[in-house]
Amino acid sequence: MKVPFLDASNTLLYPILPLTAVDYEEFGYPGDIGDFQAIQNYSPYDKIQKDVLYPAVLVTSSFNTRFGVWEAAKWVARVRERAIYDPKSPILLNLTTDIVEENRYLQCKQSALETAFLIKVMDF
Question: Gene3D superfamilies in the record, alphabetically (predicted)?
């Protein structure tokens, strides 16, 4: 997952965050109880189940002004806490301070990391 929106039910409660107010049209307005319940029903953070064997996941995110890196870290921490541990199915988090989308070298580096992750978890 690249820069995923994982904690919609909490992030949308803070209109001062970048892009939040703009996202109300797409994701719903948490001030409306019906919308808030719908948001909780699809928010990946709120859907993490206990005692489940999750597949291997590599979550990537970066520090920038458009979104909060804490969402990815919070989601990974919760999955690790609740999931059944299996070393063959790691839940990994890769954070960078670089803006990968604006740098070809970093895009290649990111692609190499993702490819290495896939090769490792698929036992090639």
Answer: alpha/beta hydrolase
Residue 28 CB coordination number (10 Å): 20
Residue whose C-alpha is closest to residue 3's, from 93, 118, 106, 108: 93
Q: What is the mean pLDDT of residues 18-36?
A: 89
Return the domain boundaries, the chain. Answer: 8-121
CA dihedral 1, 94, 70, 74 (to 10 degrees): 70
Q: For the segment 65-96, what is each residue's pLDDT rounded down to a tens digit? A: 667 788 899 999 999 999 999 999 999 999 88
- Own/partner pairs for 97-100, CB < 8 Å, 24+ apart? 97/62, 97/63, 98/62, 99/62, 99/64, 100/62
The two structure tokens encoding residue 30? 């948490």
Stretch 41-50: mean pLDDT, rounded? 94
- Alpha-carbon gap, residue 8 to 68, rounded angstroms: 11
Listed in sequence order, the DSSP H helices in 8-103 are: 8-11, 20-27, 33-42, 70-82
